[in-house]
Amino acid sequence: MPEAEQLKLKFIDLFSGIGGFRIAGQRCNLECVFSSEIDKSASQTYFENFGSMPSGDITEIHSKDIPDHDILTAGFPCQAFSIAGKKEGFKDTRGTLFFDIARILKEKKPKAFLLENVKGLLSNNKGKTIQRIYQVLSEIGYYTLDPIVLNSTYFGVPQNRERVYLVGFIDESVRKKFKMPINHLRTNKSIKDILENDPVSNKFYLSENYLQTLISHKDRHSRKGNGFGFEIKSVNDYAATLVIGGMGLERNLIIDNKITDYTPVTNIKSPISKKNIRRLTPRECARLQGFPDDYKFPVSDSVAYKLIANSVTINVVEELLKRIISVI
After folding, report:
1. Between helices 20-27 and 314-327, what is the axis angle to 10°?
2. What's CA 60's distance to the chain center, in Å?
3. HSE toward the beta carbon, residue 137, CA cutoff 13 A
4. Left if phi > 0, otherwise alpha if psi is -120 to 50, otherwise beta: which for 309?
5. Which residues are marked as active site?
6. Can you tell me the distance from the alpha carbon of 206 to that of 108, in angstroms, rounded to the nearest whole number?
7. Of the candidates 301, 312, 263, which has an alpha carbon nearest to the alpha carbon of residue 279?
């Protein structure tokens, strides 16, 4: 075995989704030795692109059965923590998915971890949730850095997406050498840089009836003093955060005048609006998350939108992993 291959650092990809962490890790010359995902569509997509099927429900996998690794990565779901009990740290996190990260860290003792979550984790339960997480990480022997909120627009993609990242090391001296990246200089890219060059399918354009529904919905909420509703973005702007549900797709609408044939290609009962307003395609959304154009989506568009929005921004994770590797 070549010496370089022997020295390759190993990582695991928990709550792997469609492999955003894995792509970032492989770009950093890390070897993925384990992944876990419970969603069937995400696992199917992961397999299509990496040739390996993620293990299933992490709550049913014993820590000892997970391969040794140098770095644990996870974009873990934020579940409510019960903190009304005896405040026993590690024991109190049982029943949450964070507990599965903690038990693996306790068993395998990797050199470092990188966790990603929504910004709201910091304010969840008046800040007590993040305090409990850090208490547990300290209990099991990790030296952590303060959580940091990073915006994807500072890492080369035109998506205004804020996420919180947690980094920790088993060696305190290594922790002291690590420097978090900062939101320093925003990308000069904009929505126009992720758009398809060729005309897209008519199915992405809004019908007259649906556009009127969106306008009525926005007006109704506006009269109530709410800010809900669709938004037509300038292609010279950043995209809004990709989210699931709640009209998430309609907050990144654009005007695209490349359409020439207004014949519907789906079963809509209304003609396509001549205002030329459309949604971003799944491929365009994937670019907003840093996915390469050869990444495959063997699922429906609606499922692809969900999987992409649930993913991490690859560029941000890659920068963090580079910095972790440089000190371990």
Report:
1. 50
2. 24
3. 27
4. alpha
5. 78
6. 51
7. 301
Amino acid 133 reads: I
Phi, psi for 172 (deg, rounded to 5):
-65, -35
Each residue's pLDDT tens digit in the chain (328 positions)?
444 445 789 999 999 999 999 999 999 999 999 999 999 999 999 999 999 999 999 999 999 999 999 999 999 876 554 444 455 555 555 558 898 999 999 999 999 999 999 888 888 878 888 898 999 999 999 999 999 999 999 999 999 999 999 999 999 999 999 999 999 899 999 999 999 999 999 999 999 999 998 988 888 767 776 666 789 999 999 999 998 876 678 999 999 999 988 888 888 788 999 999 999 999 999 999 999 999 999 999 999 999 999 999 999 999 999 999 999 9
CA distance 223 to 97: 40
- CA distances from residue 96 to 16, 73, 116, 203 in whole angstroms, order as listed: 17, 17, 16, 40
**What length is written for the chain?**
328
Q: Give the list of residues 6+ apart from residue 65 with CB closer than 8 angstroms, or none.
A: none
Q: What is the pTM of this model?
A: 0.91
Q: Give the amino acid at 216.
A: S
Q: How many of the other CB atoms lie within 10 Å of CB of 229?
A: 17
Helices and strands, counts by H and E, the chain:
10, 11
List the structure tokens of 269: 């009962």
What dihedral do alpha carbons 126, 153, 28, 290 form, nearest 10°?
110
* Residues near 89 by beta carbon (within 8 Å), at least 6 away in sequence: 132, 135, 136, 139
